[in-house]
Amino acid sequence: MADIPTLGVEEEFLLVDPGSGAPVARNREVAEHAAQQGVDLQLELTSCQVETATDVAHTTDELRDQLLRLRRTAAGAADRAGARLLAVGLPPTLPREFPITDKPRYRDIGERFGMIAHEQGICGCHVHVAVPDRDAAVAVANRLRPWLPMLLALTANSAIYRTADTGHSSWRSVLWARWPSAGPPPHFGSAEEYDAAVKMLVQTDVIRDDGMVYWDVRPSADFPTVEVRVADVPATVAETVLFAALVRGAVMTALADEARGEPMPTPAPWALKAAYWKAARDGLDGVGVDLAGQTAVPVRTQLDRLVERVRPALEAAGDHRFVVDGLAAVAERGNGAMRQRQAWRRRHDVADVLAEAGAATLETD
Questions:
Q1: pLDDT tens, 343-359?
Q2: Which of 76, 99, 195, 353 stands 20 to 30 A from 3 (CA)?
Q3: pLDDT beyond 70 at 2
Q4: What are the residues facing 288 on neighbouring strands?
Q5: Of 110, 92, 94, whose CA–CA distance to 47 is shortest?
Q6: Are 68 and 237 in contact (CB under 8 A)?
Q7: Which residues does 124 contact at the CB level (< 8 Å), separation at least 6?
Q8: Residues 217-250: tens digit of each pLDDT
């Protein structure tokens, strides 16, 4: 496994009232309880959210064990703080407000960005994969852009929001796009060009600092990795590991293509935007936009093609059978958005959605 890049995952979670399901501002209390169990939870922009981060993992089995431990510890800490931990992209219930976490940087973001920040409550999942350097990270980001919509469709987990079906599988991604540096990144020719763009965004006060570069794939500001941020937080640990394995396979394939000088796909911005919107609306069980042929293709077919495209990398990492079986399982069971809708349609009662999301958050299979 020496030549297989390591990976790590960050997951964001919502804290809700165990009875009503309304978001509750208790992230500091939850973090304090988790710290007593040896787990450091990060405080997010709004005080109804926490984030976990795995250590560096070499295999998907290692990653799964870490994610299960972190979710269980965070859920137990939430319970002791009088809250419930949910792996959902957005609150299923009608929130009264999303209070900003009382930290200087977050307060400043709240003041600068107004309702974009105060209507947050958005939970995503970020996968880091080790790369040789920042230029490699930028090159990988360029090559991953056409694959981002299908990864979004796979992980969609925010169909029910404010006690209603949004009509989208990932309403989180629609709301997230309001930030000025969110969504698919532009194509950059080098790390130098990327850094110049970020510098301009900061100097012109479009973003506060480089921590607000929210593009769906980017060179990490803190680690020697490329970071893929396109996903809703998946409903289950199994789906998060599946997503991470696919991302690592895609990164390895992009690195190999770059080393061989393979032609780089450069979808037109309007086509990529269309593919994103279609993925956000239709999700895993829908029909997506095939950017190569600019035709409509079922998302499952697109994902099967992606698996075949990155198969050598998956096999090298020992993940091919896991990914094939994982895709079949999530297609049969449904991803987060599909499970939310199934629960909602029983009685149009958000309590059913909350129960389903709560069970999925700690599901072990």
A1: 999 999 999 999 999 99
A2: 195
A3: no
A4: 297
A5: 110
A6: yes
A7: 12, 89, 172, 176, 229, 231, 232, 233
A8: 999 888 899 999 999 999 999 999 999 999 999 9
Q: What is the pTM of this model?
A: 0.96
Domains of the chain: residue spans and CATH: 90-358 (3.30.590.20)
DSSP one-letter code for 343: H
- The full DSSP string for 92-153 is SS--S--PBPSSHHHHHHHHHHTHHHHT----EEEEEEE-SSHHHHHHHHHHHGGGHHHHHH
Q: What is the per-residue pLDDT across 40-57, written as a single tens digit (0 to 9) for each?
A: 999 998 999 999 999 999
- Whole-angstrom distance, CA of residue 350 vs CA of residue 343: 8
Residues of 76-110 as b/e, b for ≥16 C-beta within 10 angstroms?
Answer: bbbeebebbbbbbbbbbbebeebbbbeeeebeebb
In order of 86, 152, 322, 328, 329, the CA distances from 325 in angstroms are 25, 19, 5, 5, 6
Judged by DSSP in three states, 263 sits in coil
The strand pairing partners of 185, in sequence order, are none
Cβ pair 31, 48 in contact under 8 A: no
Quick one: 166 exposed, middle or buried, by C-beta within 10 A (0-12, 13-18, 19+)? buried
